[in-house]
Amino acid sequence: MAFGIRLHIWGERACFTRPELKTERFSYDVITPSAARGILEAIYWKPAIRWCVDRIHVLKPIRFESLRRNEVAGKLSERTVTKAMKEGRVDEVAYFVDQNRQQRAATILRDVGYVIEAHFEFTSRADDIDTPGKHLDIFNRRARQGQCFHTPCLGTREFPANFTLVESDEAMPFVDDQLSGERDLGFMLHDIDFADGKVPRFFRATMRDGVIEVPPFEEALA
Amino acid sequence: MILSALNDYYQRLAEQDKVPVPGFSSEKISFCLVFSREGEPLQIDDLRDTTGKKPQPSTYQVPVDKRRTSGIHAYPLWDKTAYSLGVCAGEGKRLADEHAAFKARQFSLFGESGAPDLRAFLRLLDQWRPDQLAELLGYSDDVMDTNVVFRLDGQQQYLHENPEARRIWVAALESGEGIPGQCLITGEIAPLGTDHPAIRGVRDAQPSGASLVSFNSDAYESYGYSKNHNASISKAAIFGYSTALNHLLRSGDDNRQRLQIGDATTLFWAKARDAAHAEAAEGFFAMLNDPPSDEQEAAKLGSLLRQVAEGRPLAELDSMLEADTQFFVLGLAPNAARLSVRFWYVDNLERLARHYAQHYRDLQLAPMPWKGVAPAMWRLLYATAPSRDGKAKAEDIPPQLAGELTRAILTGSRYPRLLLTNVIMRMRNDGDISGIRVALCKAVLVREARLAAHSNSTTQEVPVSLDPHSTHPGYLLGRLFAELENAQRGALGNEVNATIRDRYYGAASATPASIFPVLLRNVQHHLSNMRKKDKGGLAYKIESEIGAIVDGLGDSFPKSLGIEDQGRFAIGYYHQLQARYTKRGNATVAEESTQGEDA
What we know:
The complex is a heterodimer.
Chain A: E1 5-14, E2 25-26, H1 33-43, E3 49-58, E4 64-72, H2 78-87, E5 101-122, H3 132-145, E6 162-165, E7 182-193, E8 199-208, E9 211-213
Parallel strand pairs in A: 2-5
Antiparallel strand pairs in A: 1-5, 1-6, 3-5, 3-9, 4-5, 7-8, 8-9
Chain B: H1 2-15, E1 24-29, E2 31-35, E3 41-46, E4 58-63, E5 78-80, H2 81-84, H3 95-110, H4 116-127, E6 147-152, H5 163-175, E7 180-182, E8 189-191, H6 235-248, E9 258-261, E10 264-271, H7 275-289, H8 295-309, H9 314-317, E11 326-335, E12 338-348, H10 349-363, H11 377-382, H12 399-411, H13 417-430, H14 435-451, H15 473-492, H16 500-510, H17 512-532, H18 536-553, H19 563-582, H20 584-598
Parallel strand pairs in B: 2-6
Antiparallel strand pairs in B: 1-4, 2-3, 5-6, 7-8, 9-10, 10-11, 11-12
């Protein structure tokens, strides 16, 4: 696996919200490829590269828990921001959380652990000085040292992710016995097609002995 | 997964003709207006079911396209009287607009059709004057504000059942296709829908229905999508999941697929080889959740569960219950106008039955505080609410607890720790040390000990019945406390205003070192009192029992007990107190014989 990396991530809680049950959040059973991409990008990303998740290893049994939280009900409108930019003043760019609240329920995952197997591809913005070895080395070095651009999270910002690099000669972390066998996880969000109108794409996720093969994004349109 | 399982369930129900086809919905209809070929209204037929005390509307499958909210939207060939006939009981500010919308909708849908029934219907609408209604044969005030369908005089079928009308309706629905996209339920590229029907029948949700999929504030929207475009679900799948859900939530006594656990309305369904096997599995699960009160039935279920717990395959015990039947459990709780999924659980029947058997085994307490297998889940939950004069209210049950307890039972995982703290707090607050509460304490401790067994912890086993050899301080103190209470009862009788349990239970179970020395001093008075009253035998028995327990305790009382030890305290207390009742027969005999010797 020349270009490939393996990253072990884990955390106490996680919420990979399903798009259809987004208001009263309900999590997918496991991490989605786009959430995994987000974690990789938090550690290392440049405009010249694009991360592609190849495989997700689930390490711990899937456990749910539900809770209620007070969250915001609105967001700043695009208009407010463009107006502020035009006028050069920011006094209207404010959101008072205590005045616009909503109580929402969330069914989240408890005690998760995954290994993400991924590689990167070059985008059209790569040029001669971008070599695979360079970016791979930078990622590995950063991951080994625990460096990141921002704290990677497990689905939502409230649930931070711990991470460690699985070296290429290192063995895989232990997978719980409860995950053996084949399990159909249904259709899962692969990623959003940002190049083409922000259309969501889904793929049929099947877990075999804890391993989910992620199809290339182009094939996700089942 | 939830919605796709519901959509699958819809397909299975549709094969059995139990649910409406796309574009139709089961609605409550009370009356039918009969009209002539010339479009003259003739009479009003009452369609209600009058077998009960109050007439109930009947259910018909009528054409429905989308849910009506605040705007004006008329349904084809049926509607409530304000729309269809232009009359209502109140003042009806929008009455004229609503009736006009109804007429306009019918004309735009069926205006082109040459079918004589529909032509007559349109003639009726043309000539209709709202004040005509009261003069019609069969009219009563009950007609106001109910849903009305139509029928041509001399026809058997209602107008909405007319094949031509249906064909036109389905064609009209399909012509209004949405933007194509990938459906996240079926994975197919199909026209995406945006109208999610209301889900009706979840307790404490709005009676007009609540939404499972909704984006009612802009904080829930992403990537520039507005409202329901955020969830890319095809029209067919929306219809499928919502119809299946409403079918599961239908009211009526024949619906055994719904049960209430705390604030969560719980639905379940099975996927088996055929409908009969699925129904058997659903019936079995209904019984697990609400064990029958009939003694014979309960005994049958009890022995079945015991054998399942011992590892015998379910199919061997009952041929209708197949081990690999897939089982789905969905818990929905209302949150304002929305529904949230409290829990979602899919497993096969075999494992599910095993988890239930384990649950009942963990609750096992001797002597049994209940008759039959074990109390239903809702009764367990009542034990966690404050008991006022022996009664608890459903709204006092912590909602989170209900969901987590269900999850623990279904998956065989740890009971929520909150359960133990809650029950102990309740016992301390209202002093009601009931069998169910003690059983819950025991279940939490037993299950935790079992699940921690491989993690090398050295917790003592929690006994099912009185264990005189246990050296656990919490358990011993519980037993001691029961004996002290026995002594008080023996000395002062049962008519004590405030027993030591009423006064000291909380303190004794939490901080033994500060309470037990006082209690032990007082017990001497009780014992000497008893001796004076010619109850020397009993006094001797209690004294020796106290001695034996204190011996096991070591040289000092623990300063405080943790929550887990307080659970053991409750169990010890229960065991020791019950031992007195169960042995009473023998004890009184023994007492008399000692007295005989004295004399």
